[in-house]
Each structure stands twice: as C-alpha cells, then as structure tokens.
Specification:
Elements (H helix, E strand, L loop, with lengths): L2 H10 L3 H14 L4 H13 L3 H14 L4 H13 L3 H14 L4 H13 L3 H14 L4 H13 L3 H8 L3 H13 L1 H6 L1 E2 L5 E9 L4 H7 L3 H5 L2 E7 L5 H7 L4 E2 L13 E4 L3 H4 L19 H12 L4 E6 L18 H4 L4 E5 L9 H5 L5 E2 L7 H8 L4 E5 L2 H8 L4 E5 L20 E5 L6 H17 L1
Parallel strand pairs: 1-5, 2-3, 2-5, 3-4, 6-7, 6-9, 7-8, 9-10, 10-11
Helix pairs in contact: 1-2, 2-3, 3-4, 3-5, 4-5, 5-6, 6-7, 7-8, 8-9, 9-10, 13-21, 15-20, 17-20
C-alpha cells in the first residue's frame, strides 16, 4: 500500500489526525496536488477549523477555478466565519457551474433567511422544491420564511410540514391507538354534533399563543377536548370552562372524540391568513383572583413600579435567546422601581449573583404552574424578558411586556416591527448586531426612564 492509500484508509476509519499528518508530508513534495488539498480541506471543515479550510480551498481554486468541492467548502467556511456575502457569492458560483446541486440552493436560502431577506430565501427554497417537490424540511423552512414575511396564506400551508406536528400526531397514536384509528384529522369543516380533540406540540409559548383560536374552534363543533402540557392545565381550566381540559393522561376507555388536530394547525384548518389571524390581541387569558390577592399580600404590597424579568428559556433550541443577567444591572439603578425574577429551572442559579448587588425578589421559586405565574404577573406594571413563555402569558393577559429579541429571531416576531402583531401590550426590542445586548438594554434603559417620567 502506497503512502497516499494508507492515509486515505486512515481517513476512512476516522483516524483523521494521523491521515492529516501524512497528507501534509505529501503536500511538501507536491504543493499543487489538488486531491491532497481537497482531503485536507475536508478534514479542516469537519474539525471546524474554517479559516484553514478556506485557505486550502483558495489554493485549490487558484489551480482549478471551477472545482466544485472547493467552491462548496469555501461557501460553508465563509458562512461559519460570518462572511455571509462571500458565502452567497460562492454558492452562486456553484449554481452557475452546477445548477443541479440542490444543496447549494438550500444553503443559500438559509443564508438569506438569516440575513432577513425573506423574498430571496423563498426564491431559493422554491428552487429546491423544483428538484425535490416532496422535501418536507424545505417545505417547513419555506413556511417559516413566508410567515416571518407576514405571508400567512402561503406560510401556514407549508408550516404543516413541521417536525413537531408529526411528533404530536405520532404521540397521540401511541396514547389513544384505537380512537385515533377511527377519528379523522379535522380540516376546518363544521361538525356541530361532534367532538374535536386538540393537543399540544412544541413549547409552552406556542400553546399559549395559539390558544387564542380555541373560541373559533368552539364555533365549529359540539365539544372540545384539549390536552396541554401539565403546567398549563390549571390556567386553561380557569380560562376555558366550556372546554374539557384533560389531565396529562386519561385512560382510553374514558375518552371519546370524532376528530383530532394539533393545536398549531388550528389557524391553517380555520382558513386564516395575514388579514384575519391576529385575533384577541387585547388579551384572552385572566389570572385566578385568589392567586392575584395572595401574591399581592406576600410580595407586591408596595408603591414601587413593579417589573418582572426573565433572561433564559428552553436552551434545547436557541442559545441566542439567553441573556447574561448582568445586562439587567443598569436597570436596577433606576429610582422607584422594584424588580422580580420569574426565572425558573436553568438560569435560576444566577439569582444569587444578582443578590450580591440588588435585592431582587425571587418569584420563580414560588411558581408551580402557569396559573401561579398569571397570578403573580397580574400584580406587575411591566414584564421585561427574553423570547420565552413568560412573554406569551403576559401578552395573552394584556399586560405591558417588552420582549428582547436576538439578531436571529423567531418567525413569529416578523420583520422590522416594534409593536407586536400578536399582542397589543407587547413591544419588541431587537439586536442590531449578533450578540449585542448592550444596544438593546440602552434602548430599554432610556424607554423605561421616559415611561416613569411621564
């Protein structure tokens, strides 16, 4: 076995660092060996050494300007280095030379989506679908792009390809296998003598946000059975007394329904679009009066301007939404304010760090479910938080809330808006640059001072 074959064999077996050493030895004698340069570039891409990968690709393209792999790897490296315009140029070169490479259209669409150019993103996602019309992942992402662009007539249709929808349906097929065999997927028809079962998917915030459509669903059927996540059960029972909000699990022999639908599919099934889907913006959830009074007596019986804060949500998805608690410290200095932490679970360990400098009230440790959260929120003057479920419950209660959005923000907050489409009481503060929370908090600080002065 010659030296190159040995290195390639090591590479195939995953011994990439041993292979890399041999590749560089060969390159010393053959500096223009495109095969070796390409193999090294692939190793650097895999090990996330994007700078070196890009330099190796540059050498390849000096020798062969139309080299497909080098163009593609240059684009990937540029993207990961944050050089988005350069990455787009490389992908366009790939498309120009090799128009049947679907991955180039897909990746350039993702880049345009990150840059906020939804029209271009939609164009390139559609190019992918020309080659592969049944690609569910692309259909989902084009749905997100349409909705971020506030084009819900098109977006909701594609949004039905979301993975969490499939997971929700499969979960219910396992939970209620016999009923689900008989029940039909509800598609918006009037069924005045039938029961519709709707069930949660995705996170708490999603269910809170889409609960606004339950009154419309009630107009279509005789009875609704609703399954939420356990922490939402009490809040939904208190607010929707005519709906059977089931406990997390009820035995199959005690349950009956004729139709089923995941809750995030309701606006699509109801035939809503950008002209009529932003309903109940003035609020549709209320707090339990007894809990409101209890929280008032325990924590809120003072004359300060009361502000609830949260800095971290579910980190399984978007770390961009996590805010360093130190960003809030400047706000704590504003006179006549009192701050309350609504942070729970991961992130709540930061409260000890805050208490070294400020006497914050830890409401989070008292919250057993969202009914408790609502009771506490009702006593606040303002909520300031990251993109998390706290923002949705505040908005659904019509409580003033300022949401702090990262540069790469979720589709539901649309583009270039300060006033939220979904909730009249919610205002949006956005990063201008990735990771720059200082800019956001400077705006918050000025806005809060102005609010307190007027």
């Amino acid at each position: 076995m010659d030296t190159l074959s040995k290195a390639i064999e090591l590479h195939k077996k995953g011994n990439i660092f041993e292979a890399e050493k041999i590749y560089y030895e060969i390159l010393e004698n053959e500096p223009q060996n495109i095969q070796i340069l390409d193999l090294l570039a692939n190793i650097k891409l895999k090990t996330k050494d994007f700078k070196t990968c890009f330099k190796l690709c540059e050498k390849i393209l000096e020798l062969d300007s139309n080299n497909k792999d080098a163009l593609f790897n240059s684009a990937l490296s540029s993207k990961n280095l944050g050089h988005f315009d350069k990455a787009i140029n490389y992908y366009n070169k790939v498309i120009e030379l090799y128009p049947d490479i679907i991955e180039a259209y897909y990746n350039i669409a993702l880049l345009y989506a990150d840059l906020g150019n939804m029209d271009k993103a939609i164009y390139y996602y559609n190019k992918v679908l020309e080659y592969n019309p049944e690609d569910k992942e692309t259909k989902y992402f084009i749905g997100i792009a349409y909705m971020k662009n506030r084009q819900y007539k098109e977006g909701l249709k594609y949004f039905e390809n979301r993975l969490c929808r499939l997971s929700a349906v499969v979960t219910q097929e396992h939970t209620y296998p016999n009923i689900m065999k008989e029940a039909k997927l509800w598609q918006g028809e009037n069924v005045p003598d039938k029961t519709i079962y709707t069930y949660y998917e995705a996170g708490f915030g999603d269910v809170l946000m889409f609960a606004r459509y339950l009154p419309l669903l009630q107009e279509k059927c005789k009875k609704i059975i609703l399954k939420t996540q356990v922490p939402l059960e009490d809040l939904f029972k208190e607010n929707f007394p005519d709906i059977h909000v089931m406990h997390y699990f009820e035995p199959e022999n005690t349950v009956h329904f004729d139709y089923h639908i995941p809750i995030l599919s309701l606006p699509y099934a109801l035939g809503l679009n950008e002209d009529n889907m932003f309903i109940n913006k003035e609020g549709y959830l209320k707090a339990n009066p007894q809990k409101v009074n209890s929280y008032h007596e325990r924590f809120f019986d003072n004359n300060a301007f009361k502000i609830g804060i949260k800095w971290q949500g579910n980190t399984m998805y978007d770390w961009e939404r996590v805010i360093d608690v130190k960003e809030f410290f400047k706000l704590f200095k504003i006179p006549n304010t009192k701050f309350y932490s609504f942070q729970t679970f991961d992130g709540s360990e930061k409260i000890d760090e805050i208490k070294k400098y400020y006497d914050i009230v830890d409401i989070g440790k008292t919250l057993n479910n969202f009914s408790d959260t609502a009771g506490a929120i009702e006593n606040l003057d303002l909520v300031i938080c990251n993109d998390t479920s706290l923002a949705h419950i505040a908005g659904a209660m019509n409580k003033p809330c300022w949401i702090l959005l990262p540069y790469l923000y979720n589709w539901r907050w649309h583009q270039n808006l300060e006033q939220c489409d979904w909730y009249n009481s919610v205002k949006l503060f956005r990063q201008d640059n990735p990771g720059d929370w200082d800019f956001v908090f400077e705006n918050i600080y000025n806005e809060l001072n102005y609010k307190l002065a007027t």
